[in-house]
Write a structure and sequence with these properties.
The chain is mainly β. 13% of the residues lie in helices and 37% in strands. A five-stranded mixed β-sheet has the order 3-2-1-23-5, with no helix packed on it. A four-stranded antiparallel β-sheet has the order 4-6-7-8, with no helix packed on it. It has a four-stranded antiparallel β-sheet with strand order 9-10-11-12, with no helix packed on it.
Length: 383
C-alpha cells in the first residue's frame, strides 16, 4: 500500500548552466554594476580577472566613473604628513605621503601644495608621485625676495592637455622698505606631467612685477588676455550694509574670495553676520559684466566664520563650499536651495580632483589677482 505522504515535486528542472558561462554578466550590465562602486573597491576588484581590469581601466569607464564619483583632496587638521583623497561621503579613498604643504584650491588632475619656505610640491594623486619645486628664486631676483620674511603666494594651472603641461606662478609679496612700497616679484615654473623628471625647466623664470595683490586663482585655457579688469565692488556696496569708508573696504576684502567655477571666474562674497553667500560670475570680460548668479543662505555656520576659503562646482551643478575656521565642507544644491554638511574631520584646505584614480595617467591659462582696496582683477599672460 502506497504512503499517504505529500506528493513528489515535479520531475522537470531547470537546465544546468554551462560551466563556461556560469556567473557571467553581459558586458553592458557588468559596466553598469561596476560603475556604481567607489574607486577603492574597484581597484581591488581589478585583480579578479583580466577582462575586469581591462574594462575598469578603459577611458570610457574611467570618464563615466569620475563624473559620477567626484573626489577631493584635503589637508586634515592634525595630519601634516599626508594629503587625503576623499569622496563626498567623507570616506578616505587614498593617503598620499607628503613632507609638508598647504593645498591650493585647484580643480585639475594634478594638485599643488605650498610650503612656508617659498616653495611648493606638485603631486599626482593617481600615482602618488610628488615633485618638489626648488626654493631658490629666479636668477633675476636673487637678493630681492626676502627669504627670511616670506610672504609668498602660489597659483597653479594646466596649459595643455595633450602634453600634460602645467605652470606654477610664485608671487613674493615684499614688505615696505623704509616706508616705500616695493613691487612684488612674479616667477613661473613649468611642469610636464608626462616627463620622467617632472619638468623640462628646472628653474624659476622671472616675470614682470605688479603692485599689491591679495590672492590668485587660475581660470580658463587662454593665454592672450591682458590688462586690468574691474570687479563688482560698486554693485556690492549698493546695499545698506556698507558705508563708503576705508574700514568697510577692508572688511569687504576679508569677506571675498576668488574661485574657478568650471572655467568661469567667480567672486564669492560672504556676509558674515547674515550667513549669506553671494556668488558673482564674470559673464563678459570685454564689457566687464558681472552677474550675481547665486545668493545662498547658510544657517549652519557660526558667526565667527569670516569668509569662504574655496568654492567648486560639480558636474550636476551643485556647489561645494569650504569654510576655513571650522573646517566645514558643505554641498549646496541650487535647484532645491538646500545645503548638506559632509561628515568628516576638520579640513584646513581642499582641492577638487578632476583626474581618475582608476587610470594611471602620465601625467591659454590666465592668472587672476585680487588687488588690495579696488577688488579688481589682473589677467596675466604668464607662459
Amino acid at each position: 500500500m502506497e504512503s499517504a505522504g505529500p506528493s513528489a515535486p515535479p520531475a522537470t528542472r531547470s537546465r544546468p548552466a554551462d560551466a563556461t558561462n556560469a556567473g557571467v554578466l553581459p558586458p553592458d550590465v557588468l559596466f553598469d554594476v561596476l560603475l556604481r562602486l567607489p574607486a577603492k573597491e574597484l581597484c581591488r576588484l581589478r585583480a579578479v580577472c583580466r577582462s575586469w581590469r581591462a574594462l575598469t581601466s578603459g577611458p570610457l569607464f574611467t570618464g563615466a566613473h569620475a563624473a559620477g564619483h567626484p573626489l577631493f583632496l584635503a589637508n586634515v587638521r592634525g595630519d601634516r604628513t599626508h594629503i587625503r583623497v576623499v569622496d563626498l561621503s567623507g570616506n578616505v579613498v587614498k593617503r598620499i605621503p607628503i613632507p609638508d604643504g598647504h593645498l591650493l584650491p585647484t580643480s585639475f588632475d594634478l594638485a599643488c601644495a605650498a610650503t612656508v619656505r617659498n616653495s611648493c610640491h606638485v603631486l599626482d594623486p593617481a600615482t602618488g608621485g610628488v615633485h618638489v619645486l626648488p626654493k631658490s628664486p629666479a636668477a633675476e631676483h636673487v637678493g630681492q625676495e626676502h627669504l627670511h620674511q616670506p610672504y609668498t603666494s602660489f597659483a597653479f594651472g594646466r596649459i595643455d592637455d595633450a602634453t600634460g603641461e602645467h605652470k606654477v606662478l610664485r608671487m613674493f609679496s615684499r614688505p615696505y622698505l623704509f616706508g616705500l612700497h616695493q613691487h612684488h616679484l612674479f616667477e613661473v615654473f613649468t611642469i610636464y606631467s608626462g616627463s620622467g623628471s617632472g619638468s623640462s625647466q628646472p628653474q624659476w623664470r622671472a616675470r614682470r612685477s605688479h603692485d599689491e595683490f591679495g590672492s590668485a586663482i587660475v581660470v580658463g585655457e587662454k593665454e592672450e588676455w591682458g590688462g586690468f579688469l574691474p570687479g563688482p565692488i560698486s554693485d556690492i556696496f549698493h546695499t545698506d550694509e556698507y558705508d563708503d569708508h576705508l574700514e568697510d573696504y577692508r572688511c569687504l576684502w576679508i569677506e571675498t574670495t576668488l574661485a574657478n567655477l568650471r572655467g568661469s571666474l567667480a567672486l564669492v562674497h560672504y556676509r558674515t553676520y547674515r550667513h549669506i553667500m553671494d556668488v558673482w560670475l564674470l559673464k563678459d570680460s570685454d564689457d566687464v559684466l558681472w552677474v550675481k548668479e547665486y545668493t545662498i543662505q547658510i544657517e549652519q555656520i557660526e558667526a565667527t566664520e569670516l569668509c569662504v576659503k574655496s568654492l567648486f562646482m560639480l558636474n550636476d551643478g551643485r556647489l561645494v563650499i569650504h569654510f576655513p575656521k571650522n573646517g566645514m565642507l558643505l554641498i549646496h544644491d541650487p535647484t532645491t536651495n538646500t545645503s548638506t554638511q559632509v561628515e568628516m574631520r576638520h579640513l584646513d584646505a581642499v582641492a577638487m580632483y578632476t583626474g581618475n584614480l582608476l587610470s594611471l595617467q602620465v601625467g591659454d591659462i590666465c592668472v587672476v589677482l585680487a588687488c588690495w582696496g579696488s577688488f579688481s582683477v589682473w589677467y596675466r599672460r604668464w607662459c
